């Protein structure tokens, strides 16, 4: 038998009060839709069809790198209508189970979906239900005295007695394709919201004596739907707790698992330590024994074994060699490549620059579009003047160069091997290897100098 997955993602998400379509809001750095798509893909389905509407092309672009198929639901006439459109786009469903996922239920795990699909393969209409401490907003599951599922009643249509029921529909459902098609034909929009409710197929199935199973999810969190910003923030915390737990299970030491945010993928070696308040974005790799100080932001970077990032650093698009040390309060911008045993200190900005082994930029400097050899020492307040107002130019600093403090290196310029630059210089010509360059006014002393005095009134 085949498996087809429909992801419903056409809604605007009024309750978010946002111009961004709801399914494009971010959880752990990726869109809600991407989370659902990733779980669906892991089931190895024949097709994943996303029903989209609000946000149009922007929603499609969000999954442009996948093989998702798209069906436009121009007018949002309800989840039942969305499934009808999705189903109609599939060439062949007679031998298929159709799994319906909601674009706003992002924490769902593949392992929870598998048993639903298995039951549906046996001809059972299978839905994923859950007991919630607060069922407000969800469709309630109605059962008879023998606990057989009778129907789902939406919040808007429920009376007080029904609202008390805490077993709710996650919205997620697995049904044999042909059965689903038949049941959808029976839907109408005679309800409080004037919509075609997918959940109404349950009542029709029960009336027709079709076997129904409600699989109770044992993890409440997994089926939480996101309709408001408060719910998004709540689910974000759950997601981050999951990630922190996985990291700790993998041997990472976290000063406080509640004070780390991973918005992407974090790969870690052994005995990594991360202090409080750090944000990890994109794809980040931390080698063995890497130490990250408090309040750092690290994005799309690779940090090799035994390197340390001290407090309050921004590391973006950088590569750090073994034992490199950065910070506190340093900023590495894209293209920063630090060789092993390098040191970048406080108030230093590095951009598109390579630091050779053992080189140091310890204080208050800007090094951009530069190539530094080994064991270079850049004094405090050194600036590479890489921009002439129109173009960027490169600075080359060869092995063992010593640059004195408060130096401006006007690119393009090369400092040859072992050269020395006197403090306070403005260097706009190349310095030959081994030579000393001093480019500043000579000091003069004025003997007998009197300071001006205040006039007497
Ligand atoms: C839905 C279920 C409810 C369930 C809850 C779980 C229905 C009628 N109700 O309610 O039983 O407890 O989810 O989270 O199904 N969508 C479309 N086209 C539409 C309408 C909705 O694609 O015409 C999409 C939305 O983008 C969203 C999903 O379907 O991703 C669910 O829609 P939403 O309006 O959030 O339904 P709920 O009221 O949460
Ligand atoms: Ca919802």
Commentary on this structure:
By secondary structure, this protein is an alpha/beta fold. It contains 8 helices and 37 strands. The strands form 6 sheets. It has an 11-stranded parallel beta sheet with strand order 12-14-16-19-22-25-27-29-32-35-37, covered by helices on one side. The chain has an 8-stranded parallel beta barrel with strand order 15-17-20-23-26-24-21-18. The chain has a 7-stranded mixed beta sheet with strand order 5-4-1-6-10-7-11, sandwiched between helices. The protein is elongated. The mean pLDDT is 96. The chain binds uridine-diphosphate-N-acetylglucosamine and calcium ion.
| Contiguous runs where pLDDT drops below 50 for at least 5 residues | none
**CATH topology grouping of the largest domain:** Spore Coat Polysaccharide Biosynthesis Protein SpsA, Chain A
Instruction: Please tell me the total number of domains.
Output: 2
Major sheet size, sense and barrel closure: 11 strands, parallel
CATH architecture title of the largest domain? Alpha-Beta Complex
Average pLDDT, rounded to a whole number, is 96
Work out the radius of gyration. Answer: 31 Å
What is the overall number of helices?
8
Question: What is the CA–CA distance across the termini?
Answer: 104 Å
Which CATH class of the largest domain?
Alpha Beta
Under CATH, the homologous superfamily of the largest domain reads Spore Coat Polysaccharide Biosynthesis Protein SpsA, Chain A
Derived from helix and strand composition plus strand pairing, the structural class reads alpha/beta
**Spatial strand arrangement across the major sheet:** 12-14-16-19-22-25-27-29-32-35-37
């Amino acid at each position: 038998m085949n498996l087809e997955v429909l992801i419903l993602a056409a809604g605007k998400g009024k309750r978010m009060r946002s111009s961004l379509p709801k399914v494009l809001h971010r959880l752990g750095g990726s869109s809600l839709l991407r989370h659902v798509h990733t779980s669906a893909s892991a089931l190895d389905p024949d097709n994943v069809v996303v029903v989209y509407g609000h946000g149009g092309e922007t929603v499609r672009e969000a999954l442009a790198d996948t093989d998702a198929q798209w069906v436009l639901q121009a007018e949002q006439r309800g989840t039942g209508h969305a499934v009808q459109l999705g189903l109609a786009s599939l060439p062949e469903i007679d031998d298929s189970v159709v799994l319906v996922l909601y674009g706003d239920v992002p924490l769902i795990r593949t392992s929870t979906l598998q048993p639903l699909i298995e039951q549906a393969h046996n001809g059972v209409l299978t839905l994923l239900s859950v007991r919630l401490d607060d069922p407000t907003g969800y469709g309630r599951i109605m059962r008879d005295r023998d606990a057989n599922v009778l129907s789902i009643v939406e919040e808007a249509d429920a009376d007080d007695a029904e609202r008390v029921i805490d077993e709710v529909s996650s919205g997620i459902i697995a049904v044999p394709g042909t059965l689903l098609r038949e049941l959808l034909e029976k839907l109408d929009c005679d309800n409080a919201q004037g919509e075609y409710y997918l959940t109404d197929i349950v009542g029709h199935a029960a009336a027709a004596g079709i076997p129904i199973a409600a699989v109770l999810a044992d993890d409440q969190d997994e089926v939480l739907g996101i309709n408001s910003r408060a719910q998004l923030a709540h689910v974000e915390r759950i997601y981050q707790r999951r990630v922190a737990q996985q990291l700790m299970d993998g041997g990472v030491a976290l000063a406080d698992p509640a004070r780390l945010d991973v918005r992407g993928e974090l790969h870690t070696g052994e005995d990594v330590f991360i202090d409080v308040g750090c944000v990890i974005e994109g794809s980040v790799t931390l080698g063995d024994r890497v130490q990250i100080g408090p309040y750092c932001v690290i994005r799309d970077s690779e940090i090799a074994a035994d390197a340390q990032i001290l407090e309050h650093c921004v590391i973006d698009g950088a590569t750090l060699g073994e034992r490199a040390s950065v910070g506190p309060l340093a900023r590495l911008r894209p293209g920063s490549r630090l060789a092993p045993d390098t040191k970048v200190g406080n108030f230093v900005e590095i951009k598109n620059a390579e630091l050779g082994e053992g080189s140091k930029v310890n204080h208050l400097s800007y090094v951009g579009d530069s190539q530094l050899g080994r064991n270079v020492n850049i004094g405090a307040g050194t600036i590479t003047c890489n921009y002439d107002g129109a173009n960027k130019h490169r600075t080359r600093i060869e092995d063992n160069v010593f640059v004195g403090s408060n130096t401006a290196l006007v690119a393009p310029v090369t400092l040859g091997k072992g050269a020395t630059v006197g403090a306070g210089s403005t260097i706009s010509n190349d310095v030959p290897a081994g030579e000393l360059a001093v480019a500043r006014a000579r000091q003069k002393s004025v003997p007998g100098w009197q300071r001006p005095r205040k006039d007497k009134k």
